[in-house]
Design brief:
Layout lengths: L7 E5 L4 H12 L3 E6 L2 H13 L4 E5 L5 H14 L5 E4 L15 H29 L1 E7 L12 H21 L5 E8 L11 H4 L11 H14 L3 E3 L4 H16 L4
Parallel strand pairs: 1-2, 1-4, 2-3, 4-5, 5-6, 6-7
Bound molecules: nicotinamide-adenine-dinucleotide.
The site of nicotinamide-adenine-dinucleotide has 30 residues, from helix 1 and helix 4.
GO molecular function: oxidoreductase activity
Protein name: NADP-dependent 3-hydroxy acid dehydrogenase YdfG
Family: Belongs to the short-chain dehydrogenases/reductases (SDR) family.
């Protein structure tokens, strides 16, 4: 889809990090913004900054894991701005690193609720209107953890694989329907945001690792939307990680005994 001034972009988790980076890039291109985030203070300060810059912004405190909150978001957006042209299901959380079988139930529920159900609710709430309008683009934020496995990060890995699968299926279901609706699954590696600032997580990141900035990711997202690119792995070296897994699958599963 060609991105044009005046279109509406909705970003969940838009008050910080990658979400704020995408919103900033969209605003620079003249788009109107809908920011949805559960962090009300950060949301208000991000919205105030955009307003000072003359950007049209609707900021809606929202928990993406709450179906009724997502319905309220949809209704507000429909009433104030009409259809969403670009939907970024981006809000996400991490869980403590530990062996899969030792994760407490609350961690499973909390992370699945945000990372997987948040994306599902975003699709449920906003894609029907896109289909009706016959145009739009959906960007779902997964991770390289959705295309491979980070040891001791099982809940996160599972939810991000789910986001990849939801995106692939959405694309397949839309294809051939005569609409101009694209889908991108955003798979970042390390990006300089708060999600990595937890000391327990920071301690696990190898020294010398290269982090992208949210703006580097946002620029690639814009290009991917315009090319209707399904898979977007933003960090250098991602291809080697993907190939390692594919090679193993082909070696072990591609040769029936
Ligand atoms: N930073 C990285 O290295 C990295 C790498 C791969 C994938 N990601 C993914 O990128 C996305 C954005 O993360 P980030 O790195 O910008 O981190 P971040 O913590 O800066 O931003 C996440 C935002 O989501 C919001 N949020 C969390 N739970 C929410 C909920 N239930 N409802 C609404 N908003 C909620 C937070 O308040 C925050 O503003 C996440 O899905 C994350 O998994 C990040």
């Amino acid at each position: 889809m060609k991105i044009k001034a005046g279109q509406v972009a909705l970003v969940t988790g838009g008050a910080s990090g990658i979400g704020l980076g995408m919103a900033t890039r969209f605003a620079e291109l003249g788009l109107k913004l809908v920011l949805a985030d559960r962090d009300e203070d950060r949301l208000a300060s991000a919205a105030a900054q955009f307003e000072r810059e003359g950007v049209t912004v609707l900021a809606v405190p929202t928990d993406v894991s709450d179906p009724s909150g997502m319905e309220r978001l949809r209704d507000l957006v429909c009433e104030r701005l009409g259809t969403v042209d670009i939907l970024c299901n981006n809000a996400g959380v991490v869980s403590p690193f530990r062996p899969l079988w030792t994760n407490p139930l609350e961690d499973w529920q909390r992370v699945v609720d945000v990372n997987m159900w948040g994306v599902i609710h975003g699709i449920r709430m906003f894609v029907p209107a896109m289909v009706e309008a016959g145009r739009g683009h959906v960007v779902n934020t997964a991770s390289m953890a959705g295309l491979g496995v980070i040891p001791s990060n099982g809940i996160y890995n599972a939810t991000k694989h789910a986001v990849v699968s939801l995106s692939e299926t959405l694309r397949a279901d839309l294809d051939g329907g005569g609409h101009d609706i694209g889908v991108t699954v955003l798979c970042p590696g390390l990006v300089e945001t708060d999600i990595n600032s937890d000391p327990a997580i920071a301690a696990l990141i190898p020294e010398g690792s290269v982090f992208l900035k949210p703006d580097d990711v946002a620029r690639q997202v814009v290009a991917a939307i315009e090319r209707n690119q399904l898979y977007l792995a933003t960090n250098a070296g991602s291809d080697a990680l993907i190939r390692m897994r594919q090679d193993r699958v082909m070696q072990e599963a591609g040769q029936p005994l």
